[in-house]
């Protein structure tokens, strides 16, 4: 497993609105502190992603989503950890920049060991969207991320998982499958 970077420096980077790229189950993810409006705006601008679509949060445990949700994420243990993203009702204090035009927030307890270890070390959930420009191919390596984003993103070394497709997205309350 790849050693974690200096966590104190990484926390400082995230707190000041910095972006990171890190390995996940199927590709490199692009992330930031979900509560930092400037960081999320920078991420959306860098990707060219519409604000209205909303974002996914990953964490190492369901409790990391508590500040964002109207109900306990731990109610869905059959899905996690794993490559399944759940759409759960956003809490009143969940920022609009995370949900976009939706009333639900997309959350996933990641099964990727390095992404989970990162969230555990930081003690927080992270925004997790594919590391790429909107509509383009996802990036698979740290080198690809460095080439695409240059100095605007702190790229963490590591290996992506074996999954070939992005996470499955499910609304567990309705049973609706949004992405297989």
CATH topology: DHBP synthase
Q: What is the N-to-C order of secondary-structure elements (H for helix, E for strand)?
A: HEEHEEHEHEEHEEE
What is the CA–CA distance across the termini? Answer: 29 Å
The tally of domains stands at: 1
How large is the count of helical segments?
Answer: 5
Helix content: 10-25%
So, the CATH homologous superfamily?
DHBP synthase
CA-atom Rg in angstroms: 15 Å
Strand order of the largest sheet: 6-3-5-4-9-10
Shape-level CATH architecture: Alpha-Beta Complex
Mean pLDDT: 94
What is this structure, in a nutshell?
This protein has 180 residues and is α/β, with parallel strands linked by helices.
Write a structural description.
By secondary structure, the chain is α/β, with parallel strands linked by helices. The chain has a single domain, classed as DHBP synthase, CATH 3.90.870.10. 23% of the residues lie in helices and 21% in strands. It is built from five helices and ten strands; from the N terminus they run αββαββαβαββαβββ. A six-stranded mixed sheet has the order 6-3-5-4-9-10. The longest helix has 11 residues. The chain starts with 6 loop residues before the first helix and ends with a strand.
């Amino acid at each position: 497993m790849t050693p974690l970077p200096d966590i104190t420096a990484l926390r400082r980077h995230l707190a000041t609105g910095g972006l990171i790229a890190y390995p996940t189950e199927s590709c490199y993810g692009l992330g930031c502190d979900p509560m930092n409006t400037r960081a999320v705006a920078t991420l959306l601008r860098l990707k060219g992603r519409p604000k209205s679509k909303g974002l996914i949060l990953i964490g190492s445990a369901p409790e990391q989503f508590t500040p964002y949700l109207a109900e306990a994420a731990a109610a869905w243990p059959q899905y996690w950890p794993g490559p399944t993203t759940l759409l759960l009702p956003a809490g009143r204090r969940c920022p609009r920049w995370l949900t976009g035009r939706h009333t639900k927030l997309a959350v996933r307890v990641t099964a990727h060991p390095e992404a989970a270890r990162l969230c555990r070390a930081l003690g927080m959930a992270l925004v997790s969207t594919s590391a790429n420009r909107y509509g383009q191919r996802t990036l698979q390596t740290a080198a690809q991320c460095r080439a695409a984003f240059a100095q605007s993103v702190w790229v963490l070394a590591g290996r992506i998982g074996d999954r070939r497709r992005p996470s499955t997205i499910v609304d567990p309350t309705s049973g609706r499958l949004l992405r297989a």
